[in-house]
Amino acid sequence: MAAKTRKRQEMLARPGLIRRRNVAKILKAAETVFASKGFSGASTAAIARLAGVPKPNLHYYFRTKQALYEAVLDHVLGMWVDAMEELHPGADPADALSRYVARKIDLSRRLPAASRLWAMEMLAGAPHIGGFLRGRVRELVAEKSALIETWIEAGRIAPVVPAHLFFVIWAATQTYADFAVQMTAVLNRKSLDADFYDTGRDTLTTLIVNGLGLKR
Amino acid sequence: MAAKTRKRQEMLARPGLIRRRNVAKILKAAETVFASKGFSGASTAAIARLAGVPKPNLHYYFRTKQALYEAVLDHVLGMWVDAMEELHPGADPADALSRYVARKIDLSRRLPAASRLWAMEMLAGAPHIGGFLRGRVRELVAEKSALIETWIEAGRIAPVVPAHLFFVIWAATQTYADFAVQMTAVLNRKSLDADFYDTGRDTLTTLIVNGLGLKR
DNA sequence: GCAAATCCTGACCGATTGATCAAGATGCGC
DNA sequence: GCGCATCTTGATCAATCGGTCAGGATTTGC
Fold it and tell me: Out of B35, B119, B212, whose CB is closest to A178?
Protein backbone atom coordinates (compact mmCIF):
# COMPACT_ATOMS: atom_id res chain seq x y z
CA MET A 1 0.00 0.00 0.00
CA ALA A 2 2.95 2.31 0.50
CA ALA A 3 2.66 3.57 -3.05
CA LYS A 4 5.77 4.59 -4.89
CA THR A 5 4.09 7.58 -6.43
CA ARG A 6 1.99 9.76 -4.18
CA LYS A 7 -0.54 12.42 -4.95
CA ARG A 8 0.66 15.58 -6.60
CA GLN A 9 0.08 17.81 -3.59
CA GLU A 10 2.03 15.51 -1.29
CA MET A 11 4.89 15.29 -3.71
CA LEU A 12 5.07 19.03 -3.84
CA ALA A 13 5.46 18.97 -0.09
CA ARG A 14 8.21 16.34 -0.16
CA PRO A 15 11.70 17.41 0.90
CA GLY A 16 14.14 18.06 -1.90
CA LEU A 17 17.07 20.34 -1.31
CA ILE A 18 16.43 22.88 -4.06
CA ARG A 19 12.78 23.08 -3.13
CA ARG A 20 13.42 23.69 0.55
CA ARG A 21 15.98 26.41 -0.14
CA ASN A 22 13.79 28.25 -2.64
CA VAL A 23 10.67 27.96 -0.51
CA ALA A 24 12.59 29.39 2.42
CA LYS A 25 13.87 32.31 0.35
CA ILE A 26 10.40 33.07 -0.96
CA LEU A 27 8.73 32.79 2.44
CA LYS A 28 11.25 35.15 3.99
CA ALA A 29 10.84 37.72 1.25
CA ALA A 30 7.07 37.35 1.33
CA GLU A 31 6.96 37.96 5.07
CA THR A 32 8.88 41.20 4.64
CA VAL A 33 6.81 42.50 1.74
CA PHE A 34 3.44 41.44 3.13
CA ALA A 35 4.33 43.01 6.48
CA SER A 36 5.09 46.40 4.97
CA LYS A 37 2.56 46.55 2.13
CA GLY A 38 -0.25 44.30 3.29
CA PHE A 39 -1.85 41.52 1.28
CA SER A 40 -3.47 43.71 -1.36
CA GLY A 41 -0.53 46.10 -1.58
CA ALA A 42 2.12 43.44 -1.99
CA SER A 43 2.89 42.30 -5.52
CA THR A 44 4.17 38.85 -6.33
CA ALA A 45 6.70 40.55 -8.58
CA ALA A 46 8.13 42.51 -5.64
CA ILE A 47 8.32 39.38 -3.52
CA ALA A 48 10.02 37.44 -6.29
CA ARG A 49 12.50 40.27 -6.84
CA LEU A 50 13.40 40.40 -3.14
CA ALA A 51 13.69 36.62 -3.00
CA GLY A 52 15.93 36.67 -6.06
CA VAL A 53 13.81 34.38 -8.20
CA PRO A 54 11.87 34.98 -11.42
CA LYS A 55 8.18 35.58 -10.91
CA PRO A 56 6.99 32.40 -12.66
CA ASN A 57 9.29 30.44 -10.38
CA LEU A 58 7.49 31.85 -7.35
CA HIS A 59 4.22 30.65 -8.80
CA TYR A 60 5.77 27.25 -9.33
CA TYR A 61 6.19 26.82 -5.58
CA PHE A 62 3.08 28.74 -4.52
CA ARG A 63 0.19 28.56 -6.95
CA THR A 64 -1.47 31.74 -5.81
CA LYS A 65 -0.63 34.86 -3.85
CA GLN A 66 -3.24 33.74 -1.34
CA ALA A 67 -1.53 30.37 -0.82
CA LEU A 68 1.79 32.10 -0.25
CA TYR A 69 0.22 34.50 2.20
CA GLU A 70 -1.36 31.67 4.18
CA ALA A 71 1.94 29.83 4.32
CA VAL A 72 3.60 32.91 5.79
CA LEU A 73 0.76 33.44 8.25
CA ASP A 74 1.03 29.87 9.55
CA HIS A 75 4.54 30.56 10.73
CA VAL A 76 3.58 33.85 12.38
CA LEU A 77 0.47 32.61 14.15
CA GLY A 78 2.36 29.71 15.67
CA MET A 79 4.95 31.90 17.32
CA TRP A 80 2.36 34.32 18.62
CA VAL A 81 0.45 31.52 20.34
CA ASP A 82 3.49 29.73 21.69
CA ALA A 83 4.74 32.79 23.55
CA MET A 84 1.70 32.75 25.81
CA GLU A 85 2.80 29.44 27.30
CA GLU A 86 5.03 31.44 29.61
CA LEU A 87 1.89 31.96 31.64
CA HIS A 88 1.28 28.58 33.24
CA PRO A 89 -0.15 27.35 36.54
CA GLY A 90 2.42 26.88 39.24
CA ALA A 91 4.53 29.81 38.06
CA ASP A 92 5.13 32.83 40.23
CA PRO A 93 2.96 35.68 38.85
CA ALA A 94 5.74 38.26 38.74
CA ASP A 95 8.08 35.70 37.20
CA ALA A 96 5.63 34.52 34.59
CA LEU A 97 4.57 38.01 33.54
CA SER A 98 8.20 39.17 33.36
CA ARG A 99 9.11 36.19 31.23
CA TYR A 100 6.17 36.72 28.92
CA VAL A 101 7.05 40.38 28.44
CA ALA A 102 10.70 39.52 27.87
CA ARG A 103 9.83 36.83 25.33
CA LYS A 104 7.45 39.06 23.44
CA ILE A 105 9.96 41.89 23.24
CA ASP A 106 12.63 39.45 22.17
CA LEU A 107 10.36 38.37 19.34
CA SER A 108 9.88 42.00 18.36
CA ARG A 109 13.62 42.50 18.20
CA ARG A 110 14.58 39.30 16.40
CA LEU A 111 11.58 38.82 14.13
CA PRO A 112 9.94 42.20 13.64
CA ALA A 113 8.38 41.26 10.31
CA ALA A 114 6.28 38.58 12.00
CA SER A 115 4.82 41.08 14.44
CA ARG A 116 4.21 43.58 11.66
CA LEU A 117 2.40 41.03 9.54
CA TRP A 118 0.16 40.21 12.49
CA ALA A 119 -0.57 43.91 12.93
CA MET A 120 -1.22 44.31 9.21
CA GLU A 121 -3.79 41.54 9.31
CA MET A 122 -5.60 43.26 12.17
CA LEU A 123 -5.61 46.64 10.44
CA ALA A 124 -7.10 44.99 7.37
CA GLY A 125 -9.88 43.55 9.55
CA ALA A 126 -8.34 40.09 9.98
CA PRO A 127 -9.94 38.75 6.77
CA HIS A 128 -7.68 35.72 6.64
CA ILE A 129 -7.43 34.71 10.30
CA GLY A 130 -10.88 35.41 11.67
CA GLY A 131 -11.42 31.73 12.36
CA PHE A 132 -8.09 31.41 14.08
CA LEU A 133 -8.86 34.35 16.35
CA ARG A 134 -12.32 33.09 17.23
CA GLY A 135 -10.98 29.57 17.80
CA ARG A 136 -7.49 28.93 19.03
CA VAL A 137 -6.75 32.42 20.32
CA ARG A 138 -10.09 32.77 22.08
CA GLU A 139 -9.56 29.45 23.88
CA LEU A 140 -6.04 30.46 24.81
CA VAL A 141 -7.14 33.79 26.22
CA ALA A 142 -9.96 32.17 28.17
CA GLU A 143 -7.54 29.67 29.64
CA LYS A 144 -4.91 32.23 30.58
CA SER A 145 -7.53 34.65 31.87
CA ALA A 146 -8.72 31.94 34.24
CA LEU A 147 -5.15 31.57 35.46
CA ILE A 148 -4.88 35.30 36.13
CA GLU A 149 -8.18 35.14 38.01
CA THR A 150 -6.81 32.46 40.32
CA TRP A 151 -3.86 34.72 41.08
CA ILE A 152 -6.23 37.54 41.90
CA GLU A 153 -8.48 35.40 44.09
CA ALA A 154 -5.44 34.10 45.93
CA GLY A 155 -4.41 37.68 46.55
CA ARG A 156 -1.16 37.22 44.65
CA ILE A 157 -1.77 40.15 42.30
CA ALA A 158 -4.05 43.17 42.42
CA PRO A 159 -7.48 42.92 40.80
CA VAL A 160 -7.42 43.50 37.06
CA VAL A 161 -9.51 42.46 34.08
CA PRO A 162 -7.26 39.80 32.58
CA ALA A 163 -8.16 40.48 28.96
CA HIS A 164 -7.22 44.14 29.26
CA LEU A 165 -3.97 43.22 30.96
CA PHE A 166 -3.21 41.07 27.92
CA PHE A 167 -4.17 43.89 25.56
CA VAL A 168 -1.66 46.16 27.26
CA ILE A 169 1.09 43.57 27.21
CA TRP A 170 0.51 42.63 23.58
CA ALA A 171 0.41 46.25 22.48
CA ALA A 172 3.37 47.45 24.50
CA THR A 173 5.62 44.58 23.42
CA GLN A 174 4.63 44.34 19.76
CA THR A 175 5.05 48.10 19.42
CA TYR A 176 8.81 47.55 19.59
CA ALA A 177 8.50 45.86 16.20
CA ASP A 178 5.47 47.56 14.65
CA PHE A 179 6.52 51.13 15.48
CA ALA A 180 10.29 50.71 15.39
CA VAL A 181 10.48 53.22 12.54
CA GLN A 182 8.80 55.85 14.68
CA MET A 183 11.20 55.13 17.54
CA THR A 184 14.33 55.51 15.44
CA ALA A 185 12.97 58.70 13.92
CA VAL A 186 11.91 60.28 17.19
CA LEU A 187 15.09 59.33 19.05
CA ASN A 188 17.31 60.22 16.09
CA ARG A 189 19.01 56.85 16.02
CA LYS A 190 20.23 54.91 13.04
CA SER A 191 19.22 51.62 14.57
CA LEU A 192 17.93 50.17 17.80
CA ASP A 193 20.49 48.18 19.77
CA ALA A 194 20.02 45.48 22.40
CA ASP A 195 20.24 48.01 25.23
CA PHE A 196 17.30 49.86 23.79
CA TYR A 197 15.07 46.80 23.83
CA ASP A 198 16.30 45.87 27.32
CA THR A 199 15.28 49.30 28.57
CA GLY A 200 11.89 48.85 26.99
CA ARG A 201 11.52 45.45 28.60
CA ASP A 202 12.51 46.81 32.01
CA THR A 203 10.20 49.81 31.72
CA LEU A 204 7.18 47.71 30.82
CA THR A 205 7.99 45.02 33.37
CA THR A 206 8.29 47.59 36.12
CA LEU A 207 4.99 49.21 35.20
CA ILE A 208 3.17 45.88 35.20
CA VAL A 209 4.80 44.36 38.26
CA ASN A 210 4.46 47.52 40.33
CA GLY A 211 1.11 48.27 38.76
CA LEU A 212 -0.24 44.93 39.94
CA GLY A 213 1.12 45.53 43.44
CA LEU A 214 3.99 43.08 43.19
CA LYS A 215 7.53 43.58 44.39
CA ARG A 216 10.47 42.64 42.25
CA MET B 1 -2.97 93.92 -7.21
CA ALA B 2 -5.78 92.00 -5.48
CA ALA B 3 -6.56 90.19 -8.70
CA LYS B 4 -10.09 89.13 -9.40
CA THR B 5 -8.91 85.77 -10.65
CA ARG B 6 -6.42 83.92 -8.52
CA LYS B 7 -4.14 81.05 -9.38
CA ARG B 8 -5.74 77.75 -10.23
CA GLN B 9 -4.60 75.99 -7.05
CA GLU B 10 -5.98 78.70 -4.80
CA MET B 11 -9.28 78.69 -6.58
CA LEU B 12 -9.54 74.98 -6.14
CA ALA B 13 -9.11 75.55 -2.43
CA ARG B 14 -11.87 78.17 -2.25
CA PRO B 15 -15.01 77.32 -0.29
CA GLY B 16 -18.04 76.37 -2.35
CA LEU B 17 -20.74 74.23 -0.82
CA ILE B 18 -20.68 71.34 -3.30
CA ARG B 19 -16.93 71.20 -3.15
CA ARG B 20 -16.77 71.08 0.62
CA ARG B 21 -19.37 68.33 0.84
CA ASN B 22 -17.74 66.16 -1.81
CA VAL B 23 -14.25 66.68 -0.45
CA ALA B 24 -15.48 65.65 2.99
CA LYS B 25 -17.13 62.51 1.63
CA ILE B 26 -14.00 61.54 -0.27
CA LEU B 27 -11.66 62.24 2.64
CA LYS B 28 -13.75 60.14 4.98
CA ALA B 29 -13.89 57.22 2.57
CA ALA B 30 -10.19 57.56 1.80
CA GLU B 31 -9.28 57.45 5.49
CA THR B 32 -11.19 54.19 5.90
CA VAL B 33 -9.77 52.50 2.83
CA PHE B 34 -6.18 53.70 3.32
CA ALA B 35 -6.34 52.59 6.96
CA SER B 36 -7.33 49.05 6.11
CA LYS B 37 -5.44 48.47 2.85
CA GLY B 38 -2.50 50.82 3.07
CA PHE B 39 -1.40 53.30 0.44
CA SER B 40 -0.34 50.76 -2.19
CA GLY B 41 -3.21 48.41 -1.47
CA ALA B 42 -5.92 51.04 -1.65
CA SER B 43 -7.42 51.72 -5.06
CA THR B 44 -8.91 55.04 -6.02
CA ALA B 45 -11.83 53.09 -7.47
CA ALA B 46 -12.59 51.53 -4.09
CA ILE B 47 -12.38 54.92 -2.38
CA ALA B 48 -14.67 56.51 -4.97
CA ARG B 49 -17.14 53.65 -4.61
CA LEU B 50 -17.25 54.01 -0.82
CA ALA B 51 -17.57 57.78 -1.11
CA GLY B 52 -20.38 57.37 -3.59
CA VAL B 53 -18.80 59.36 -6.40
CA PRO B 54 -17.55 58.31 -9.85
CA LYS B 55 -13.84 57.76 -10.05
CA PRO B 56 -13.13 60.66 -12.42
CA ASN B 57 -14.92 62.90 -9.95
CA LEU B 58 -12.53 61.86 -7.22
CA HIS B 59 -9.64 62.84 -9.49
CA TYR B 60 -11.32 66.14 -10.09
CA TYR B 61 -10.94 67.08 -6.44
CA PHE B 62 -7.66 65.27 -5.82
CA ARG B 63 -5.36 65.10 -8.79
CA THR B 64 -3.45 62.06 -7.64
CA LYS B 65 -3.80 59.25 -5.14
CA GLN B 66 -0.72 60.65 -3.43
CA ALA B 67 -2.33 64.07 -3.01
CA LEU B 68 -5.45 62.49 -1.54
CA TYR B 69 -3.36 60.41 0.84
CA GLU B 70 -1.44 63.45 2.04
CA ALA B 71 -4.66 65.36 2.64
CA VAL B 72 -5.93 62.51 4.81
CA LEU B 73 -2.62 62.27 6.66
CA ASP B 74 -2.67 65.98 7.51
CA HIS B 75 -5.83 65.51 9.50
CA VAL B 76 -4.50 62.46 11.31
CA LEU B 77 -1.10 63.87 12.21
CA GLY B 78 -2.65 66.97 13.69
CA MET B 79 -4.82 65.06 16.13
CA TRP B 80 -1.99 62.80 17.16
CA VAL B 81 0.21 65.75 18.05
CA ASP B 82 -2.51 67.77 19.77
CA ALA B 83 -3.30 65.00 22.24
CA MET B 84 0.15 65.30 23.80
CA GLU B 85 -0.66 68.77 25.01
CA GLU B 86 -2.32 67.13 28.00
CA LEU B 87 1.20 66.85 29.36
CA HIS B 88 2.06 70.42 30.35
CA PRO B 89 4.13 72.03 33.08
CA GLY B 90 2.17 72.90 36.17
CA ALA B 91 -0.06 69.85 35.86
CA ASP B 92 -0.14 67.16 38.47
CA PRO B 93 1.71 64.14 37.08
CA ALA B 94 -0.99 61.59 37.89
CA ASP B 95 -3.64 63.96 36.56
CA ALA B 96 -1.80 64.76 33.36
CA LEU B 97 -0.95 61.14 32.58
CA SER B 98 -4.51 60.02 33.31
CA ARG B 99 -5.89 62.71 31.06
CA TYR B 100 -3.51 61.83 28.28
CA VAL B 101 -4.43 58.15 28.46
CA ALA B 102 -8.13 58.99 28.56
CA ARG B 103 -7.84 61.30 25.58
CA LYS B 104 -5.87 58.82 23.53
CA ILE B 105 -8.34 56.01 24.24
CA ASP B 106 -11.20 58.33 23.45
CA LEU B 107 -9.59 59.00 20.09
CA SER B 108 -9.26 55.27 19.51
CA ARG B 109 -12.95 54.81 20.20
CA ARG B 110 -14.30 57.75 18.25
CA LEU B 111 -11.87 57.87 15.34
CA PRO B 112 -10.32 54.42 14.98
CA ALA B 113 -9.53 54.89 11.29
CA ALA B 114 -7.16 57.74 12.15
CA SER B 115 -5.16 55.58 14.53
CA ARG B 116 -5.12 52.72 12.05
CA LEU B 117 -3.83 54.93 9.28
CA TRP B 118 -1.02 56.11 11.55
CA ALA B 119 -0.17 52.49 12.31
CA MET B 120 -0.33 51.59 8.63
CA GLU B 121 2.18 54.34 7.82
CA MET B 122 4.57 52.97 10.44
CA LEU B 123 4.27 49.40 9.20
CA ALA B 124 5.05 50.60 5.70
CA GLY B 125 8.19 52.28 7.03
CA ALA B 126 6.76 55.80 7.32
CA PRO B 127 7.61 56.66 3.69
CA HIS B 128 5.32 59.71 3.65
CA ILE B 129 5.83 61.17 7.12
CA GLY B 130 9.50 60.61 7.82
CA GLY B 131 10.15 64.34 7.88
CA PHE B 132 7.23 64.96 10.20
CA LEU B 133 8.51 62.31 12.63
CA ARG B 134 12.06 63.63 12.58
CA GLY B 135 10.82 67.21 12.92
CA ARG B 136 7.67 68.07 14.77
CA VAL B 137 7.25 64.78 16.65
CA ARG B 138 10.88 64.63 17.69
CA GLU B 139 10.70 68.16 19.11
CA LEU B 140 7.49 67.34 20.88
CA VAL B 141 8.89 64.19 22.46
CA ALA B 142 12.02 66.02 23.55
CA GLU B 143 9.94 68.73 25.17
CA LYS B 144 7.59 66.34 26.96
CA SER B 145 10.47 64.09 27.98
CA ALA B 146 12.11 67.07 29.68
CA LEU B 147 8.87 67.65 31.57
CA ILE B 148 8.80 64.03 32.74
CA GLU B 149 12.41 64.39 33.84
CA THR B 150 11.54 67.36 36.03
CA TRP B 151 8.83 65.30 37.68
CA ILE B 152 11.35 62.55 38.35
CA GLU B 153 13.98 64.94 39.71
CA ALA B 154 11.37 66.50 41.97
CA GLY B 155 10.55 63.04 43.27
CA ARG B 156 6.97 63.31 42.05
CA ILE B 157 7.12 60.09 40.00
CA ALA B 158 9.41 57.08 40.06
CA PRO B 159 12.43 57.08 37.72
CA VAL B 160 11.59 56.01 34.19
CA VAL B 161 13.00 56.61 30.73
CA PRO B 162 10.44 59.09 29.40
CA ALA B 163 10.57 57.91 25.78
CA HIS B 164 9.77 54.35 26.76
CA LEU B 165 6.92 55.53 28.97
CA PHE B 166 5.51 57.25 25.89
CA PHE B 167 5.98 54.14 23.77
CA VAL B 168 3.93 52.14 26.26
CA ILE B 169 1.19 54.75 26.44
CA TRP B 170 0.98 55.19 22.67
CA ALA B 171 0.89 51.45 22.06
CA ALA B 172 -1.56 50.58 24.82
CA THR B 173 -4.02 53.31 23.86
CA GLN B 174 -3.82 53.04 20.08
CA THR B 175 -4.24 49.28 20.34
CA TYR B 176 -7.89 49.90 21.22
CA ALA B 177 -8.33 51.12 17.66
CA ASP B 178 -5.67 49.19 15.74
CA PHE B 179 -6.48 45.78 17.22
CA ALA B 180 -10.18 46.23 17.87
CA VAL B 181 -10.93 43.38 15.49
CA GLN B 182 -8.80 41.04 17.56
CA MET B 183 -10.56 42.15 20.73
CA THR B 184 -14.05 41.56 19.40
CA ALA B 185 -13.00 38.16 18.05
CA VAL B 186 -11.26 37.02 21.21
CA LEU B 187 -13.99 38.24 23.56
CA ASN B 188 -16.78 36.99 21.27
CA ARG B 189 -18.49 40.36 21.13
CA LYS B 190 -20.33 41.90 18.24
CA SER B 191 -19.07 45.36 19.06
CA LEU B 192 -17.15 47.20 21.74
CA ASP B 193 -19.25 49.48 23.92
CA ALA B 194 -18.30 52.48 26.00
CA ASP B 195 -17.87 50.35 29.14
CA PHE B 196 -15.28 48.29 27.37
CA TYR B 197 -13.14 51.30 26.55
CA ASP B 198 -13.61 52.69 30.04
CA THR B 199 -12.31 49.45 31.50
CA GLY B 200 -9.32 49.63 29.21
CA ARG B 201 -8.68 53.21 30.24
CA ASP B 202 -8.90 52.33 33.92
CA THR B 203 -6.67 49.30 33.55
CA LEU B 204 -3.95 51.21 31.78
CA THR B 205 -4.23 54.24 34.06
CA THR B 206 -3.91 52.04 37.14
CA LEU B 207 -0.87 50.27 35.75
CA ILE B 208 0.86 53.54 34.93
CA VAL B 209 -0.09 55.48 38.04
CA ASN B 210 0.71 52.61 40.38
CA GLY B 211 3.66 51.61 38.27
CA LEU B 212 5.19 55.06 38.66
CA GLY B 213 4.63 54.97 42.44
CA LEU B 214 1.73 57.40 42.49
CA LYS B 215 -1.46 57.12 44.47
CA ARG B 216 -4.81 57.80 42.91
C1' DG C 1 -31.41 85.54 -17.44
C1' DC C 2 -27.13 85.09 -19.36
C1' DA C 3 -22.27 84.03 -19.09
C1' DA C 4 -18.67 82.11 -16.82
C1' DA C 5 -17.07 79.17 -13.51
C1' DT C 6 -17.70 74.89 -11.54
C1' DC C 7 -19.01 70.22 -11.50
C1' DC C 8 -19.92 65.67 -13.53
C1' DT C 9 -19.06 61.44 -16.26
C1' DG C 10 -18.53 57.86 -20.14
C1' DA C 11 -14.81 56.48 -22.74
C1' DC C 12 -10.31 55.60 -22.89
C1' DC C 13 -4.99 55.28 -22.07
C1' DG C 14 -0.54 52.85 -20.97
C1' DA C 15 1.28 50.35 -17.05
C1' DT C 16 1.00 46.86 -13.71
C1' DT C 17 -1.50 43.19 -11.56
C1' DG C 18 -1.90 37.85 -10.57
C1' DA C 19 -1.47 33.95 -13.10
C1' DT C 20 -0.54 30.53 -17.07
C1' DC C 21 1.90 27.87 -20.41
C1' DA C 22 5.13 25.54 -23.37
C1' DA C 23 9.49 24.38 -23.82
C1' DG C 24 13.95 23.99 -22.38
C1' DA C 25 17.50 23.19 -18.52
C1' DT C 26 18.93 20.75 -14.62
C1' DG C 27 19.06 17.24 -11.00
C1' DC C 28 18.65 12.50 -9.52
C1' DG C 29 17.49 7.46 -9.03
C1' DC C 30 18.94 3.42 -10.85
C1' DG D 1 24.65 7.43 -18.53
C1' DC D 2 19.90 6.71 -19.44
C1' DG D 3 15.27 8.38 -18.32
C1' DC D 4 12.15 10.56 -15.60
C1' DA D 5 11.06 14.05 -12.24
C1' DT D 6 12.04 18.52 -10.91
C1' DC D 7 13.12 23.05 -11.80
C1' DT D 8 13.50 27.37 -14.63
C1' DT D 9 11.97 31.06 -17.69
C1' DG D 10 10.47 34.17 -21.64
C1' DA D 11 6.26 35.17 -23.59
C1' DT D 12 1.77 36.11 -22.86
C1' DC D 13 -3.03 36.52 -20.95
C1' DA D 14 -7.27 39.16 -19.09
C1' DA D 15 -8.19 42.23 -15.36
C1' DT D 16 -7.31 46.07 -12.78
C1' DC D 17 -4.40 49.94 -11.73
C1' DG D 18 -3.86 55.38 -11.58
C1' DG D 19 -4.91 58.91 -14.39
C1' DT D 20 -6.76 61.77 -18.56
C1' DC D 21 -9.91 64.07 -21.52
C1' DA D 22 -13.71 65.98 -24.07
C1' DG D 23 -17.81 67.76 -23.58
C1' DG D 24 -22.30 68.03 -21.44
C1' DA D 25 -24.85 69.45 -17.02
C1' DT D 26 -25.32 72.48 -13.27
C1' DT D 27 -24.43 76.15 -10.26
C1' DT D 28 -23.11 80.86 -9.35
C1' DG D 29 -22.07 85.88 -9.95
C1' DC D 30 -23.90 89.92 -11.63
Answer: B119
